[in-house]
Write a structure and sequence with these properties.
The chain is of the alpha/beta class. It contains 16 helices and 18 strands. The chain is globular, with a radius of gyration of 25 Å. It is an enzyme of class 3 (hydrolase). It catalyses: ATP + H2O = ADP + phosphate + H(+).
Length: 460
């Protein structure tokens, strides 16, 4: 018998028998690492991509401890979208085939309230739902979580991306402090660390990451003969590397705008970020970049303060930073959350002193490389997302769940095509897949959000 056999676990015999009938014999890495701790009643943070088998990991844990005779909500599973909630509920029902009279209920936005209220009145053991709709049922006192003993946050990073932090905070307030909390996430940004600290008790951390070397940032230095050659060097890097998201750092506002204009004329998806931008334009620029509806952001160091993008593929220094510490801070924005990042720095002969100073600071020699070759026919990277602006925000009581529901309701677009949702006091931005933008615009313009029609614009 292998160590990864499900039969090695302390699972109820009927669950093991059902696993066998489903053809589940060997645990996946995330199951093998997390299930013993989950079955032991510990809080667990599991980091793994979709398809790693995390649903069965938390599913078996919560089903093993479930008491069917106690007809109360014992488990809440929160998911970012209706599609994922439906998928999770379906998998839980498969895993629970051997448990008689179990009631698993999905509560998601974009679907009518009436049937959900009726189902809730009949009670359930396990609720699977989206944060916005769960919050609404709790506020209207239709859902009682006072006897909850297990909370699962599935794809927690995506829930935060979609702007559900406030809804999550409200939901946590309705449940007992004494409970088991299981959090699964593909990435581990700072916000996730904060949530884990706030709502979990001594969690066991399990990470099944794709293999990569420990050095998550690879640095490249390119020497050019003249200052005017820098823009050609930037083009070569962007065309050869094709980053999904890249920040180019310039030392002055004038150069920031000049580089952005030159790249725009060459067909790159680019915007600039500098101190002359109005707050509204700054918000929109950052929203579009975070939404991945533009791939290149040209910025000064001052303007980029507070720029918190978790999956940045590349940083390009159009010029060397004045100070080695600034250089390290710039390049530290890539290679986060365990992903591989590249940092490319372009310099002229008159910047050799800065280079020597950086060598001393890093404690390693810097070697210039030849610029990457650009094959003929290479085109600038085209983003797969688009950004829609809604002229209603927090002051209009618009929440992420309202926008998600308006987009994915009857004959709407699929939740998997909705990306980041950001809500400001008077307006909101939502990312949708480029392929679904016309359907999303039509759905939002013909429908209502919070019972109102808002002006809707495709901003790029």
């Amino acid at each position: 018998m292998s160590e990864t056999d499900f039969s090695t676990l302390n699972l109820h015999a009927d669950l093991l028998q059902n696993l066998d009938s489903l053809g589940y014999h060997q645990m996946t890495p995330i199951q093998a690492q997390s299930l013993p701790a989950i079955l032991d009643g510990k809080d667990v943070i599991g980091q793994g991509k979709t398809g790693s088998g995390k649903t069965a990991a938390f599913g078996l844990g919560l089903l093993n401890k479930l008491n069917v005779k106690r007809f109360r909500v014992q488990t809440l599973v929160l998911c970012p979208t209706r599609e994922l909630a439906d998928q999770v509920a379906k998998e839980l029902r498969r895993l629970a085939r051997s448990i008689h009279n179990i009631k698993i209920l999905t509560l998601c936005g974009g679907t009518p309230f009436g049937p959900q209220i009726g189902s809730l009145e009949h009670g359930a053991h396990i609720i699977v739902g989206t944060p916005g709709r769960i919050e609404e049922h709790l506020r209207k006192e239709r859902l009682d979580l006072s006897e909850l003993d297990t909370l699962v946050l599935d794809e927690a990073d995506r829930m935060l991306d979609m702007g559900f932090q406030e809804s999550l905070d409200v939901i946590f307030g309705y449940m007992p402090k004494q409970r088991q909390t299981l959090l699964f996430s593909a990435t581990f940004p700072k916000q996730i660390e904060k949530i884990a600290k706030d709502i979990m008790s001594e969690p066991v951390r399990v990470e099944v990451a794709s293999t990569h070397d420990d050095k998550t940032i690879t640095q490249h230095f390119y020497r050019v003969d003249h200052h005017e050659d820098r823009i050609d060097a930037v083009r070569s890097v962007l065309l050869s590397r094709q980053p999904e998201s890249a920040v180019i750092f310039c030392n002055t506002k004038v150069e920031t705008q000049m580089v952005a204009d030159a790249l725009h004329d060459d067909g790159f998806s680019v915007l600039s970020l500098h101190g002359d931008l109005e707050q509204r334009d700054r918000d929109q620029t950052l929203a579009r970049f975070a939404n991945k509806s533009i791939s290149v952001l040209v910025a000064t160091d001052v303007a980029a303060r507070g720029l918190d993008i978790d999956s940045l593929d590349a940083v390009i220094n159009y010029q060397m930073a004045y100070d080695p510490e600034i250089h390290v801070h710039r390049i530290g924005r890539t290679g986060r959350a365990g992903s591989q990042g590249i940092a490319c720095s372009i310099y002229c002969e008159n910047e050799i002193r800065k280079l020597i100073s950086l060598e001393d600071y890093l404690g390693q020699p810097i070697k210039a490389e030849a610029l990457p070759a650009v094959k003929s026919g290479m085109e600038p990277y085209r983003p797969g997302m688009a950004t829609i602006r809604i002229e209603g925000g927090k002051k209009d009581k618009v929440r992420p769940g309202d926008i998600l529901g308006a987009l994915t309701g009857d004959s709407g677009i699929e939740g998997k095509y909705v990306g980041k949702i950001q809500i400001f006091p008077f307006y909101a931005y939502v990312a949708v897949a480029e392929r679904s933008v016309s359907g999303a615009l039509a759905k939002l313009r013909s429908g209502k959000i919070k019972g109102r029609h808002f002006k809707i614009r495709h901003v790029g």
